């Protein structure tokens, strides 16, 4: 989970640029070990630039230029997500170095628990940190679903696209922007998406299609429940305002 600390004397937004440079270095290491063509480089660099821009904008908005320890864990995860993105895009899902993709994705998913623990134990959790952490997770799920979809069918892409469809819908329907109550079930459903997709990507489990189908079903249930709650909450709010 990204956490941000305010330091007035620190150079503005220097650290995001450093991490963008580290992304280039990570892509260079992947290229040297597994090979990386122009499309892979383009995808990896685009991801790195988008990460730098998003974090830089958030830090400017929150008037801070210093990153906390959990921030750096999340950004380290981001470097791995950038490498996975480059590998999957470079081969268009075919002849991908599966072991390397699975290893990078598995470590990135594992560190999701670590950055959350660091943020809570240091008492440095922020809304921006939670959002950035969620965006890194969501993009990794999108890339993994795209890779698995090459082998299992385009229906798998629904896993990676569902959150983005939800966000796009919230731009049109204001009632979908209300804050949702905390839910342990939602966290479990979100966690199994990455786990099941990594298992499917590894190709080691014959029944991987069943796991991916279960992941998609649970995600549809989770989003459906949240949308229904938002709809009902909006209806209650309208009713209360009319009787006020």
What does this structure look like?
Helices cover 77% and strands 2% of the residues. It is globular. A two-stranded antiparallel sheet has the order 1-2. It contains eight helices and two strands; from the N terminus they run βααβαααααα. 34% of the residues are buried. Helix 2 runs antiparallel to helix 3 (69-90) and helix 5 (127-152) runs parallel beside helix 7 (184-202). The protein has 244 residues and is an all-alpha fold.
Structure, briefly:
The chain has one domain (13-234). It is 77% helix and 2% strand. The protein contains 8 helices and 2 strands; from the N terminus they run βααβαααααα.
Write the layout of secondary structure elements.
Elements: E1 4-5, H1 14-34, H2 38-61, E2 66-67, H3 69-90, H4 98-122, H5 127-152, H6 157-172, H7 184-202, H8 208-242
Antiparallel strand pairs: 1-2
Helix pairs in contact: 1-2, 1-3, 2-3, 3-4, 3-5, 4-7, 5-6, 5-7, 6-8, 7-8
